[in-house]
């Protein structure tokens, strides 16, 4: 197939991602969503865009510097052309975001939630703010002038700086004041309502008190975004054996990378814009003016300040992840030994998996616990249970990926904690990130080695398990356990070429197996069926195979949350392909692959998207689902998502999206799963049959204590 033919039904990944973030912004504009939740979507859109500039735009700058003639295989665009297209596409998104934020902010005012400019403060509030500034802020500021004796300072990534032109007699210079990160981003004002003002506005208002010997003019505040696309793969491993040290150096290097975007609160004068563009070596199109806060993390904490009487009107109805319907009270380990268990986050709680690890940590029959970790919460019970297992004499092996972007420091700290407790900690491979979500418990039963294996689609992160949708399969299948044991052995000895009978593992077998399963459906012609759910789709081999399957008559549904580089509905190419994206209350995160239909359908869950980085440059694991009930449940869930006509959007052949409509009834997949979890009937508690080998000694000890 020629390059020209491929371009007929593919699109650029960066522009596809921007369309995903536009769908996030659409949720902020949806008037059926509570106001504070809409504001959170503005914040999510903003943090997404920040990361996009730091990683994707930063990467394109690097590519343009290395070889600006190398064209993207999906769109034929050079890195420079992609950057031009990105900046053109982002400009209207800024305007749309500012307008959306202003509308939500206005609608929140009747509820007493008011973000204020200084001129909107009441007289008593102005006095309060001035006193707070003098007492709490002014003493900790670090202002600087820029002149021949005071060089331009290094501006940190995503930190806010108040700037102004200064004049003293005939001398003119620039004044810069960093907004300290150790004081609150916002200042709440006294009173019952939630009235607040941003700290950069407070500092800007009283800038004359900071530069009290100067005439101050053209006050503004700015924020730079720096390229953060650093890979320690480029570092010299030979010079230092400690990978943790390399990662710490990498994080320090990230702070000083090139600027890829400049945000300003007010329009810059022509001279100031030229000065800053020259200083940061950027073009004017890299400068974006925004009328809303440049950092919106405070929104999430503010939601907790809302009085209970108003929360119902302003926020989503609270939902607590439920105990899974498939498990009774009692030992999770004993129940998993009898029957496979599937957890569906956040509708069902992550607690049963954590309980499984806790039980294994103290079970005298358990010999080893092995796990791959990509991201963890700041507070992680999982780590405490793994450390307890090591302290109890279990062999605990943790393969932790220190290069999980923006979680590097957190993972470094956890790795040190686990090592101190006696866990064996591994860091993976030089050129391959370990992104798999796999846990193996090995125990002895009647002189036989037995396994419990857990395979997930998402991270072992107790915080995001309440915000992201994911699946976690716990199985006592001996065959899958044996494969998992071989996998961990291979990881320990640096073997990426392992052979597995049931698990499919990248970079060796995952893509090949998926393409082979697609070929099976192609062989069925019009009777073929494929449903796949993932976060992103960029892999060209997979894209070609989807087109081939479509041309053979196979009905294909792809549920892709974010980037999707294949276009549906292209005559003669992708006529039988439908692409759906769901953006709702929870972040859609599972990877589920279904090949075929009915009783013969082959179902897999795993950690990999169909992206080249996942299929060729990462260690990923997907697992077949053999339990008939779980297979049916997963297929049912996918069909509910395909029936969604509230939060689902279908991709059109030009790469844009349109909300799905129609149907006799309103279907919101996430709401459906929440209701199902709430209404599920759990089985009656079972009596634990396993004999506790230590119980007789505990009883004897109790008798002696009583005596």
Question: What is the approximate shape?
Answer: globular
**Main sheet summary:** 10 strands, mixed
Helical element count? 22
Strand content: 15-25%
Explain this structure to me?
By secondary structure, this protein is of the alpha/beta class. 39% of the residues lie in helices and 21% in strands. The chain is built from 22 helices and 27 strands. The strands form 4 sheets. Strands 14, 18, 19, 20, 21, 23, 24, 25, 26 and 27 form a 10-stranded mixed sheet that branches. Strand 11, helix 14 (381-391) and strand 12 (395-400) form a beta-alpha-beta unit. The protein starts with a helix and ends with a helix.
Defining key terms:
single chain, 707 residues, 39% helix, disordered C terminus
Short description:
The protein has 22 helices and 27 strands. With 707 residues, the protein is an alpha/beta fold.
Note the topology:
Elements: H1 3-7, H2 13-29, H3 35-67, H4 79-108, E1 113-115, H5 123-137, E2 144-146, E3 160-168, E4 171-178, E5 186-188, E6 194-198, H6 199-205, H7 207-210, E7 215-226, H8 243-254, E8 259-264, H9 270-280, E9 287-289, H10 298-302, H11 308-314, H12 332-338, E10 341-345, H13 351-362, E11 366-373, H14 381-391, E12 395-400, H15 408-421, E13 424-426, E14 433-434, E15 438-445, E16 448-456, E17 468-475, H16 478-492, E18 504-506, H17 510-522, E19 529-534, H18 540-551, E20 555-560, E21 577-582, E22 587-588, E23 591-595, E24 602-606, H19 612-616, E25 618-624, H20 628-643, E26 648-651, E27 657-659, H21 669-679, H22 695-706
Parallel strand pairs: 1-6, 8-9, 11-12, 12-13, 14-25, 17-22, 19-20, 20-21
Antiparallel strand pairs: 2-4, 3-4, 3-7, 5-6, 7-8, 10-17, 11-15, 15-16, 16-17, 18-25, 19-23, 21-26, 23-24, 24-25, 26-27
């Amino acid at each position: 197939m020629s390059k020209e033919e491929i371009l007929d039904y593919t699109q650029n990944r960066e522009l596809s991602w921007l369309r995903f973030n536009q769908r996030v912004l659409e949720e902020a504009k949806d008037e059926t969503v509570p106001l504070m939740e809409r504001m959170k979507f503005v914040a999510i859109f903003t943090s997404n865009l920040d990361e996009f500039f730091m990683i994707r735009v930063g990467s394109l700058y690097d590519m343009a510097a290395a070889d600006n003639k190398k064209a993207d295989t999906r769109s034929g665009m050079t890195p420079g052309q992609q950057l031009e297209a990105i900046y053109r596409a982002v400009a209207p998104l800024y305007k749309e975001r500012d307008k959306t934020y202003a509308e939500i902010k206005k609608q929140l005012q009747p509820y007493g939630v008011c973000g204020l400019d200084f001129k909107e403060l009441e007289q008593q509030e102005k006095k309060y703010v001035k006193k707070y500034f003098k007492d709490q802020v002014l003493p900790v500021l670090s202002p600087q002038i820029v002149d021949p004796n005071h060089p331009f300072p290094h501006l940190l990534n995503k930190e806010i700086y108040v700037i102004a032109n200064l004049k003293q007699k005939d001398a003119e210079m620039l004044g810069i004041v960093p907004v300290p990160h150790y004081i609150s981003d916002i200042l709440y004002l006294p009173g019952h309502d939630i009235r607040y003002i941003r700290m950069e506005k407070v500092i800007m208002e009283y800038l004359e008190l900071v530069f009290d010997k100067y005439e101050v003019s053209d006050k503004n505040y700015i924020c730079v975004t720096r390229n953060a696309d650093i890979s320690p793969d480029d570092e010299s491993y030979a010079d230092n054996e400690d990978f943790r040290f390399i990662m710490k150096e990498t994080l320090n290097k990230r702070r000083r990378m090139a600027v890829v975007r400049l945000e300003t609160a007010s329009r810059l004068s022509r001279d100031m814009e030229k000065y800053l563009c020259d200083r940061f070596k950027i073009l004017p199109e890299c400068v974006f003016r925004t009328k809303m806060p440049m950092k919106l993390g405070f929104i999430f904490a503010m939601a907790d300040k809302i009085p209970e009487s108003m929360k119902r009107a302003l926020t989503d109805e609270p939902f607590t992840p439920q105990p899974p319907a498939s498990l009774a009270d009692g030992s999770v380990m004993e129940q998993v030994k009898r029957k496979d268990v599937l957890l569906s986050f956040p509708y069902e709680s992550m607690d049963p998996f954590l309980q499984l690890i806790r039980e294994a940590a103290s079970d005298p029959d358990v010999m080893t616990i092995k796990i791959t970790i990509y991201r963890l919460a700041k507070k992680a019970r999982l780590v405490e249970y793994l450390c307890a297992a090591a302290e109890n004499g279990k062999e605990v092996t943790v393969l932790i990926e220190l290069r999980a972007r923006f979680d590097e420091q957190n993972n470094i700290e956890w790795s040190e904690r686990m090592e101190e407790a006696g866990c064996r900690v591994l860091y993976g491979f030089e050129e391959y990130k370990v992104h798999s979500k796999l846990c193996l418990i090995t125990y002895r039963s009647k002189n036989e080695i037995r396994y419990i294996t857990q395979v997930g689609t998402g991270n072992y992160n107790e915080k995001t398990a309440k915000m992201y949708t994911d699946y976690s399969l716990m199985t006592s299948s001996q065959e899958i356990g044996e494969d998992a044991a071989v996998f961990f052995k291979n990881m320990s000895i640096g073997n990426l070429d392992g052979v597995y009978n049931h698990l499919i593992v990248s970079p060796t077998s995952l893509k090949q197996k998926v393409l082979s399963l697609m070929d099976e459906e192609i062989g069925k012609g019009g009777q073929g069926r494929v449903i796949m759910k993932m976060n992103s789709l960029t892999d060209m081999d997979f894209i070609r195979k989807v087109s081939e399957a479509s041309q053979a008559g196979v009905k294909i549904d792809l549920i892709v949350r974010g980037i999707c580089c294949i276009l549906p509905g292209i005559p003669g190419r992708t006529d039988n392909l439908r692409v759906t994206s769901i953006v709702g209350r929870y972040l859609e995160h599972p990877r589920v692959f279904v090949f075929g239909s009915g009783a013969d359908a082959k179902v897999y869950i795993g950690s990999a998207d169909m992206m080249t980085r996942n299929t060729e440059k990462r260690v990923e694991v997907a697992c077949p689902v053999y339990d008939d009930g779980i297979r049916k449940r997963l297929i049912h869930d996918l069909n509910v998502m395909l029936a969604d006509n509230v939060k689902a959007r279908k991709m059109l052949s030009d790469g844009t999206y349109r909300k799905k409509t129609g149907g006799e009834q309103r279907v919101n997949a996430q709401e459906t799963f929440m209701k199902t979890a709430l209404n599920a009937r759990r089985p009656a508690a079972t009596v634990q049959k396993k004999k506790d080998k230590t119980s007789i000694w505990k009883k004897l000890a109790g008798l002696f204590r009583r005596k």
